[in-house]
Amino acid sequence: MQEYGLKHIETLAKYFYNKSNLSCEVKKHQLQAEWGKFKFDLLEWKKVVPKDVVDGKCPTVTTTTWTLHHILKQPSYRHFYPLLSNLAECRLSIPISNAWPERGASALKRIKTRLRSRLQNDMLQALMQVSINGPPLHSEQCKELVRDSVQLWLKQKKRRILPKKGASTNHRGSVSEQVEMADVGVQVETVEADQNEASANEMALEDEDEAAAAALKLTDQSDDSDWDFHFDSDTD
Q1: CB 142 within 8 A of CB 171
Q2: Where are the domains of the chain?
Q3: pLDDT tens, residue by residue, 186-200
Q4: If you ran DSSP here, which 8-state letter would residue 165 be given?
């Protein structure tokens, strides 16, 4: 009984208090002293351990896990065993596998997307807690939590009530549609005016050409006659 667990306590002391200073050396001896006193308390705890835990009928809770939880539940044990309480917290918080960190990373990617890149840390932490440790979906606890959250959100300030589905469009929507239809009509009228102006300019240019030809007494030479050129081979 005196040598039980001493090697494990020395290994833990070297790992957590590995600096070569006076404070770490004192904590190493303090941890060993706490463990010496704690072993005698374990003999008394055998009487209060649940029977299903001792028999191994509870698959989720072992005697070691129950002991660690029992240390943290009692405030007096934190006073008598401060270093052992810290080791118990580390043991219960450190996951056995990397499944929990991977789930946290997946939840972080799912919550903080590109569109929500400016999400603050306090809101991100709250959403992570709900996503990882929240109640199951469609459960009574989940429905109650959603109702309480909505009521709290509505009490913060006055909210504008949105119209129900199937309601008629508001005045703003009708005005926007009218503006859009008016813009289309203006565009059509503008295109037709431009085409009429272009045809009028072409007719004015044709009239000017005919007036200039009549003033200069020019004949219509659209049908060009063939010119015959005779070259005399005897002439120089």
Answers
A1: no
A2: 6-93, 99-149, 176-212
A3: 444 555 566 666 667
A4: T
